[in-house]
UniProtKB/TrEMBL annotation, chains A, B:
Keyword Zinc-finger recorded: yes
Superkingdom of origin organism: Bacteria
PROSITE patterns hit by this protein: TOPRIM (PS50880)
Entry-linked SMART domains: TOPRIM
Species of provenance: Microbulbifer spongiae
Record keyword DNA repair present: yes
InterPro entries associated with the record: DNA_Rcmb_RecR (IPR000093), Rcmb_RecR (IPR023627), TOPRIM_dom (IPR006171), TOPRIM_RecR (IPR034137)
Zinc finger intervals, C4-type: 56-71
Protein name: Recombination protein RecR
Gene label: recR
Gene3D superfamilies to which the protein is assigned, alphabetical: 3.40.1360.10, 6.10.250.240, RecR Domain 1
Role description: May play a role in DNA repair. It seems to be involved in an RecBC-independent recombinational process of DNA repair. It may act with RecF and RecO.
Keyword annotations from UniProtKB, A to Z: DNA damage, DNA recombination, DNA repair, Metal-binding, Zinc, Zinc-finger
Occurrences of domain Toprim (ranges): 79-174
Length: 202, 202
């Protein structure tokens, strides 16, 4: 229906997550009709980002620097290292705003079925940091999925081998959530992981 | 939070219609982490499309050809010309599949407040076609909005001046729609534009 170049643009736009054929078509029409300058800018920005953005040498977050701004920030607590699956997780934790340590981004989780092993997640780099940095605690914040849990256990073992204390972030009913609408798995976990109201005096 | 190039990419992605900050961030992460090849392809496609896509000399639809495939298709009925506001409207009508004439795309509607007059909508080109082509009927399919109606009236007068029959597509209750959920304006129009069940014999 559309001319070849427009069809190609629509196909290319569909590579974006959650963009279907209708949205891609609307985006193509919008860019070509209303805002070709934005399209040129987007093209340039995409090219530059793909060319220059790599991973931070220390935490593997996406950045065009050798060492990212977070790792370079001397005000971040050196004693805490938080392991997450994706850069977006770092953003979510930063937005929550109560963690002031550093990060380590796995870019995925262990998944033998997909052929993703420890080397793909940069575990050797993590082990180097465990061995060489004055870490007090490794906080494992992988997702509470089967693969995320397996990855958490693997990392916990590494930390133990290096004599670093390791913790897992809590999972349970979200703050502000209503029990009525929480799924059974989460509720079961919340009961299992209940904490004492009045911790026993030691 | 992100490095400058990534921030720039997120900003650039927000130019896309209905992409907010969260989606733009997810898109940027996805492209950089999972599919940089798609990003390169998208950049190339955007550049090419913006460079080469213009308007068809006859119907003003977006195309990289001088005359678009629809206008060049000799099997399309020469006698009918349908005037629409956007290229997406052409697609919608083509997908409905019962119109086999040609099109004329205005790329907008008359809107004195925004300084959009007949010359911006290519009305002079439309008048040339009205004067020179063996047209039987001009079908006005602008949107049923205030501006669309005003535009329709303007075009109808042009067609009348050239002695070409002119019609407006019907507006009313959508097929399969339930009266209960139809807005008052549409219902009022549907009553006003009711057609006789048994047209009077002439």
């Amino acid at each position: 229906m559309f001319s070849p170049l427009i069809e190609e643009l629509i196909r290319a736009l569909r590579c974006l997550p959650s963009v279907g054929p209708k949205s891609a078509q609307r985006m193509a029409m919008y860019l070509l009709e209303k805002d070709p300058d934005a399209a040129v800018l987007l093209a340039r920005s995409l090219t530059q980002a793909v060319e220059k953005v790599g991973r931070c040498n220390q935490c593997r977050i996406l950045t065009e620097e050798v060492v990212c701004a977070l790792c370079n920030n001397s005000r971040r607590e050196q004693a805490f290292l938080c392991v997450v699956e994706t850069p977006a997780d770092v953003l979510a934790i930063e937005q929550a705003g109560n963690y002031h340590g550093r990060y380590f981004v796995l870019h995925g989780h262990l998944s033998p079925i997909d052929g993703i092993g420890p080397e793909d997640l940069g575990i050797s780099l993590l082990e180097q940091r465990l061995a060489n940095e004055p870490l007090q605690e490794l906080i494992v914040a992988t997702n509470p999925t089967v693969e995320g849990e397996a990855t958490a256990h693997y990392i916990a073992e590494c930390a133990r081998a290096h004599g670093v204390a390791v913790s897992r972030i809590a999972h349970g009913v979200p703050i502000g959530g209503e029990l009525e609408y929480i799924d059974g798995g989460t509720l079961a976990h919340a009961f299992h992981s209940r904490t004492a109201f009045f911790p026993a005096a030691e």
